[in-house]
Amino acid sequence: MTTATAIQTTERRRVRVWFGEHVIADYSAEPALAERYAHAMSRRFAGLRVTNDPLPTVDRLPDPLPGERMWDVAPR
């Protein structure tokens, strides 16, 4: 079993802290850790909405980052 396959078969949860419609914290982990994190964030940010949703499974790994340079001059 490869690492990519192991990641896909393990159920993960996504915890987000919302300030209105903006996400100010985003965390994903196994269900027990996600629940613990959500509980801690709801105490720390008592007035904000904290969601704990299943992380969607992906069939493939994310695309690699582009190889081009952001600028032509190397830092000195």
What does this protein structure show overall?
With 76 residues, the protein is an alpha+beta fold. The chain is built from 2 helices and 3 strands, in the order αββαβ. The chain has helices at 3-9, 31-44; strands at residues 13-19, 22-29, 49-54. The chain has a 3-stranded antiparallel β-sheet with strand order 2-1-3, covered by helices on one side. Strand 1 and strand 2 (22-29) form a beta hairpin. It is extended and about 45 Å long. The N and C termini lie far apart (44 Å).
Q: How would you summarize this macromolecular structure in one to three sentences?
A:
With 76 residues, this protein is of the alpha+beta class. Helix content is 28%, strand content 28%. Strands 2-1-3 form a three-stranded antiparallel β-sheet, with helices on one face.
